[in-house]
Each structure stands twice: as structure tokens, then as C-alpha cells.
Amino acid sequence: MKKIGVVLSGCGVYDGSEIHEAVLTLLAIDRNGAEAVCMAPQADLAVINHLTSQETGEKRDVLVESARIARGNIRDIKGVSAAELDAILFPGGFGAAKNLCTFAMKGAAATVNPEVARLLKEMAAAGKPIGAVCIAPALIAAVLGKDYSPVVTIGTDAGTAAEIDKTGAIHQNCPVTEIVVDAQNKLVTSPAYMLATRITEVADGIEKCVKEVIALI
């Protein structure tokens, strides 16, 4: 059975992984006959009250929070190598741009969690497929833009697309339920909640993304 890494960034759209996107990714992996390997880095996150969208002043651990989505079956990303995986996927949520990297604050000048960057570079160097949805393609651009000039999408947001282009990656506009495939780099991306207004739209795009990532293995 193919093993697909799923990199989580917390639990909740405003301060971690977008839960719908994460669960739909896990569901699509299982439906397509592969095994999900959930992982996250150990790092502090600033907690957002999801009723008020305000910071609470609390700090929580990204790995501990991500374990909520993975039902406890999760690994510290620092112990995962590309040799163990056939492909890797990144759900969105602001955690992908705030906890895994600093794209949300710094755009193209973002820094990336070193263990996340290491694993992404290992996967790219090994020619193994990478998938990302919602804002997570910005993370891919921050890590791989300079060396691989990957083609990615976050949908149609011009400001975010401009920052992605500054990394050396190439942004391509894309409808919500579709995917952008960079066959040369074995990279698949989809807009998800960057554009979606209904969970069914998210599900359609993620199903296509996961199916194509598995097909590229």
C-alpha cells in the first residue's frame, strides 16, 4: 500500500490546519487505496478563538493540536524521511502559512520550519509527488521556488499570487474544483477554501488532487 504523508499545522482554520480540508484529504487517500501518514512539527502556535477570530493569548503545540485531527496517530515530522513515503500532501488553513512558515506575515520573504523544509526538499530531490491545497502552495513556493520554479495555484487572489511569483514559483489561476498539475515537478495544487463557498467544492478539488498525486507515484 502506498504511503502518503499528510503534514498538519494545528487544528482549526485560523490557527492551524483547516479541518474540512484535512479530513477530506485523509478520506480521499483512503478511498484511493493508500495509507495516510500524519505528521506535524513540534512548535508553538498562537491560539485563535474561532468564535471571535481574536487571539486568546494562549500558546499551544502544533503537534499536540494536530493529533486531534489524526486521532492521536501522528508523528513528529523531524523523525520522518522521504525514504518512508511515496508522496506527501499539505492541507491548508492559516497554520500552513503561520506555523509551518511565515508566509502569512512576510510573503515571499517567508522563513520555513526547518524540518518541514528538509522533508519537502528531500521529496523533491527524490522525484516523489507533492500535493498542496488552499494556502499551502505558498509554503511549497517558499521552499522550492528558487530551485525548481514550480507551477502552483491558490486560486485567483492577485496579491497572494504576486508574492508566490516573487519566490521563483509560477502562479496559475484555477477554478475552485479544479487542479493545477506541474508534471515536471510532480506537483499538484488546488484552491479549496481560498475560493470555495461550499464544502462540496472543497471535496471535489481535493479528491482530484489526491487522485492525481497517487497517479504520479
Plain-language structure description:
The protein is of the alpha/beta class. The chain has a single domain, classed as Rossmann fold (3-Layer(aba) Sandwich), CATH 3.40.50. Helices cover 37% and strands 21% of the residues. It has helices at residues 19-31, 62-69, 94-98, 103-106, 114-125, 136-148, 158-166, 199-215, and strands spanning 3-7, 35-40, 44-49, 54-61, 75-76, 87-90, 130-133, 151-152, 170-171, 180-182, 187-190. It has a seven-stranded mixed beta sheet, sandwiched between helices. The protein has a two-stranded antiparallel sheet with strand order 3-4. Helix 1 (19-31) crosses helix 8 and helix 6 packs parallel to helix 7. The longest helix is centred in the last third of the chain and has 17 residues, at 199-215. It is globular. 55% of the residues are buried.
Please state the overall shape, judged from the principal axes of the Cα atoms.
globular
Percent of residues in helices: 25-40%
Record the strand order, biggest sheet.
5-2-1-6-7-11-10
Q: How many structural domains can be distinguished in the coordinates?
A: 1
Summed up, the helix count is 8
Q: State the order of secondary-structure elements, H for helix, E for strand.
A: EHEEEHEEHHHEHEHEEEH
The CATH C-level name is Alpha Beta
C-alpha termini separation? 12 Å
The CATH superfamily is Class I glutamine amidotransferase (GATase) domain
Number of strands: 11
CATH architecture: 3-Layer(aba) Sandwich
State the low-pLDDT regions, or none: none
- Overall pLDDT metric: 97
Structural class: alpha/beta
Largest sheet: 7 strands, mixed
Using only C-alpha atoms, the radius of gyration works out to 15 Å
